[in-house]
């Protein structure tokens, strides 16, 4: 096991922050626990030290951790009790994942991964693939478009058997709702704002069973160009005629909450009425934020200098959020254009936030482009895939922190 030192979190108070006081300022750890300690490092097949490892969202289901792997065109499987890499589940023919595809992530897959009963629903180019882990096979493909771009991140309403997945690069972007009993499309919701402008994209979504609402991060609208949190009533979705399409602004009880200068990514439902929003600001020099808001009314509860991530997860067993801060920087401000580069490098970290006090309690180093995170409450383990130190370019700390090869870092959640 490697000994990876804890990063000293740099607290910044800046006049650029036009939101509430930066709760959680200071990254020192006042908790006498092993949170963030590296437990193990797993390799992934077909990755060389210089391979640019293209992966996306991860999820825990039962005693397994699953994450989407575009290099191997597969859903990768890790056995949690033994901390071992098990297999890469691939499809064949029409059931094959797109893999790296012809170019950018928008034309690659698999992407999002969501546990739906005994299956994993994975977003892919033009479709959602259904994976049966017991059979180690892709068993069905549900087409959602024909444009050659991906269905990305999803969320699941287990009460009503409805799975939502966003297609952010469509014009306009839309969300597909799938009836998981019949494995057919129940409805689609398009995202064109009241001014007639298509959304700038869609990011993570979550379903709240306590209030029967879906929440999704909208990348940008006329009113909120750097992002808004959209609340969609579950009842309004189920009221759409079977197979029909409706625009989000026309749905009953829809609400849109401004996220300020956020450029949102991850989303996690926390305790009480809290919902956490990961921001990955594209404005050079803007504070990298993680916001916690009241999901019933959009009121800001805390704004932490702890952003620059993608996937964001809440663990009820520790009452903590875990944010995969792949674009964090040494000064906590967005790099040039919000992207990592040799000229404007990033310092990736896993950020750990106390959900009770809404404060950052620890940051620990992570590997290159480590933007995906999943937490297993039963074992107290956190799973974070990453690329090699040199590909993609722009990681200032990966080599010095020992993240030389691509793989999966397993941390302790407690």
Sum up the structure in keywords.
globular; 1% helix; 4-stranded antiparallel sheet; Methylamine Dehydrogenase, Chain H; single chain; WD40/YVTN_repeat-like_dom_sf; Quinoprotein_ADH-like_sf; 5-stranded mixed sheet; 414 residues; mainly beta; disordered N terminus; signal
Q: What can you see in these coordinates?
A:
- This protein has 414 residues and is mainly beta.
- It has one domain: Methylamine Dehydrogenase, Chain H (7 Propeller).
- The protein is 1% helix and 39% strand.
- A 5-stranded mixed sheet has the order 10-11-12-13-17, with no helix packed on it.
- A hairpin with a 4-residue loop joins strand 10 and strand 11.
- It is globular and about 55 Å long.
- The N terminus is likely disordered.
């Amino acid at each position: 096991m490697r000994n990876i030192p804890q990063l000293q979190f740099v607290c910044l108070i800046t006049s650029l922050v036009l939101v509430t006081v930066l709760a959680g300022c200071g990254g020192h750890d006042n908790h006498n626990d092993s949170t963030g300690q590296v437990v193990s490092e797993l390799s992934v097949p077909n990755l060389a030290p210089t391979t640019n490892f293209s992966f996306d969202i991860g999820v825990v289901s039962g005693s397994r951790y699953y994450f989407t792997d575009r290099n191997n065109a597969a859903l990768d499987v890790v056995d949690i009790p033994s901390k071992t890499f098990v297999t890469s589940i691939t499809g064949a023919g029409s059931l094959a994942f797109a893999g790296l595809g012809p170019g950018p992530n928008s034309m690659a897959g698999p992407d999002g991964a969501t546990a739906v009963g005994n299956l994993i629903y994975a977003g892919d180019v033009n479709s959602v693939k259904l994976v049966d882990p017991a059979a180690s096979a892709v068993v069905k493909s549900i087409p959602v478009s024909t444009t050659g771009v991906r269905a990305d991140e999803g969320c699941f309403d287990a009460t009503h058997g409805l799975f939502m997945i966003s297609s952010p690069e469509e014009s306009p972007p839309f969300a597909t709702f799938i009836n998981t009993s019949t494995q057919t499309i129940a409805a689609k919701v398009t995202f064109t704002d009241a001014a007639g402008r298509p959304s700038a994209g869609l990011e993570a979504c979550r379903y709240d069973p306590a209030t029967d609402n879906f929440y999704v991060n909208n990348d940008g609208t006329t009113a909120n160009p750097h992002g808004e949190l959209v609340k969609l009533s579950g009842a309004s979705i189920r009221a759409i005629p079977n197979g029909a399409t409706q625009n989000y602004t026309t749905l009953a009880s829809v609400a849109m909450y401004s996220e300020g200068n956020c450029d949102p990514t991850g989303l996690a439902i926390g305790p009480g009425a809290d919902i956490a929003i990961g921001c990955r600001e594209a404005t050079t020099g803007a504070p990298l934020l993680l916001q916690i808001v009241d999901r019933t009314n959009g009121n800001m509860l805390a704004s932490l200098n702890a952003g620059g991530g993608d996937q964001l997860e809440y663990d009820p067993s520790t009452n903590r959020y875990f944010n995969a801060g792949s674009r964090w920087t040494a000064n906590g401000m967005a790099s040039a254009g919000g992207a990592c580069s040799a000229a404007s490098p990033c310092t990736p970290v896993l950020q750990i936030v106390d959900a009770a006090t809404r404060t950052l309690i620890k940051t620990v180093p992570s590997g290159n482009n480590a933007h995906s995170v999943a937490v297993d409450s039963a074992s107290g383990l956190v799973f974070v895939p990453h690329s090699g130190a040199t590909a993609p370019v722009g990681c200032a700390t990966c080599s010095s922190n020992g993240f030389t090869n691509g793989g999966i870092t397993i941390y302790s959640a407690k």
